[in-house]
């Protein structure tokens, strides 16, 4: 037995009566609807546009959400690839330093005494 959240809120006496609530759309005192989305990377709320209906504002929010997620996905994928490359490179440095020096250099992989680490310090 599942109850819709909006129906449960109305039954408890809360929420806006008669209006369906859309994520990313809010009604202004003038009666028009505003579409906004929160950009989690920059921690800001982005104003998209003002609309005459809640449905239009919700559609604008959905489009912006898909666009932001696609951009975020590309950014995260790029970062994941970078982390993988750096991890492989770090393991390579550990092996090279271990061959050149003792176990102490292995525990401190970017030790200044390791010639490979010196060459790669930017």
UniProtKB/TrEMBL annotation:
Segments crossing the lipid bilayer: 71-94
Keyword annotations of the record: DNA-binding, Membrane, Nucleus, Transcription, Transcription regulation, Transmembrane, Transmembrane helix
Cellular compartments annotated: Nucleus
Entry keyword DNA-binding: yes
Endoplasmic reticulum as UniProt keyword: no
GO CC list: nucleus
One Gene Ontology term of the molecular function aspect: DNA-binding transcription factor activity
Domain AP2/ERF: 21-79
PANTHER family recorded: AP2_ERF DOMAIN-CONTAINING PROTEIN, SHN SHINE , DNA BINDING / TRANSCRIPTION FACTOR
Name of the protein described by the UniProt record: AP2/ERF domain-containing protein
Native source species: Lithospermum erythrorhizon (Purple gromwell)
Organism ancestry: Eukaryota, Viridiplantae, Streptophyta, Embryophyta, Tracheophyta
């Amino acid at each position: 037995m599942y109850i819709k959240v909006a129906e449960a809120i109305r039954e408890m006496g809360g929420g806006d009566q008669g209006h369906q609530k859309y994520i990313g759309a809010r009604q202004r005192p003038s009666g028009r609807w505003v579409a906004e989305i929160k950009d989690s990377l920059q921690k800001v709320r982005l104003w998209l546009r003002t609309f005459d209906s809640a449905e239009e504002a919700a559609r604008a929010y959905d489009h912006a959400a898909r666009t932001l997620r696609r951009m975020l996905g590309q950014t995260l994928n790029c970062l994941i690839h970078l982390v993988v490359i750096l991890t492989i490179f770090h393991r390579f440095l550990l092996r090279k330093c271990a061959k050149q020096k003792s176990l102490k250099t292995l525990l401190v992989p970017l030790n200044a005494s390791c010639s490979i680490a010196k060459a790669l310090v930017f």
